[in-house]
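Appendix B.2, paired examples.
Example (i):
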Amino acid sequence: MQELQQQVQGEWSAGIQRAGGTGRIAQGIEGSGAAGILTARWSAGWGANKIFSSLTNQIPSIHLSCEDYGLVHRLASNDQSPVLRLDAEAEFMGEVPVFNVVGEIRGTELPDEYVLLNAHFDSWDGASGATDNGTGTIMMMEAMRILKEVLPQPQRTILVAHWGGEEQGTNGSLAFGEDHPEVIDGLQAGFNQDNGTWRVQFFKMQDFPGAAENFNRWIAELPRDLTGHMETDLEVVPESGSSDEASFICRDAPGFRLLSHYPDYRQYTWHTDLDTYDKIVFDDLRNNATIVAMLAYMASEDPIRVSNVRRAPPAGRQWRPCGTSQRSSGN
């Protein structure tokens, strides 16, 4: 059965590619005079459906659940002429300002060197964006509250940044890097969280192998009841560009991402219609906020700067260049 499933999926994907991809198909359907397009993208979890951007320009693209889509498909296949009626209202409000929100605890001895806690504040609109990325914002706010209480006079300046426009291509963090070269030049370490509600389990040194020396010392100081579930193998891997740490790494500034294996994040809440408040595990958030506050404390007080020397790219390749922030929608 599994082999047959893979065969059917392969044939379907090959047909889509021969037709020029889903975007070209949608444009062709729209150009043929269709009133709308029905879409469904199962997320490999019960009742979970991925929701992404529309592929049409003027006509609506309507997302149906896997169950409803299957019903409509069967009715159509049986020549029962199903009719769908849509009642939807939308109004284009024009361009509105969006912002990053940045807080600061000013450093006392090294105020021009920075520790950056960050997460993106904008959410995906398939649901309420609870784990992508409300949990990241909650975690960083709580870590900053802890630091304000226990470390009101850090050696280095500690920033917390809640980015706008991450879902539009890390737009907010790119703009921040363009506008604040002093933070790029003075960055001791940036800690980004964009991995749902699960506990932090490991770190990757991205492109900075020398950073492992600092991280090993910091992690060794964390209480075992916080690190017992963590992997301390600090693997050096290239940045994929999928979240806001990439906006700093591309400028040779040591940005890192707090990672989890999140066994069901991709299936159930990442860009789905199930990413709602009830999925948040607050015990995990308390654990993560405590870890981040401790790491920020040690990064601030560490007499040794974190290395910003990137490893050489593999033969025949180049590191991903920085993008340019989009300051206007053009509308």
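Example (ii):
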Amino acid sequence: MKNSRGFYIGRFQPFHYGHLKALNWILEREREVIIGIGSAQFSHTLRNPFTLSERVEMVWRVVKKRDLTSRVIIMGLPDTDEQHSMWVSLIKSYVPKFDRAYTNDSLSRVLLKEAGIEVSNIPFFERNKYEATKIRRLIIDGGNWEELVPPEVAEVIKEVKGVERLRALAGRDS
């Protein structure tokens, strides 16, 4: 195992099995991983329904259950309101030292590479099945979303009344 640290960026709205598979894939390549939860300041919208603290709790419970706490750091990262040139500076200020970033987001890749940061793609793991937008839609529509997220994530979503929140945001209050 390398003596290195990766930086895995995502919004995790919510954290699903595709994210977990990606995390495990990164951990096969890195000694430690910093999970940067993006759009930290946003919540209570259809695109970003969960707060930063709720998303941290989701990821933390998953990491803890799998005994990965000694290898994973979880932190929030706010967006820079489309002032893209500031984003990498914000990362350098907020995030502990890392050797490479892992993201499939094209804008993030461009900004990080322009700043001289090594960037690696992450394989998509059953992207047609594990996709957060689809999971949020299933939650709203009363579909079977729980099989797409780790049990710890479903538990947090229920505890914070995330199903009710998403349905209300979509105008489908019960």
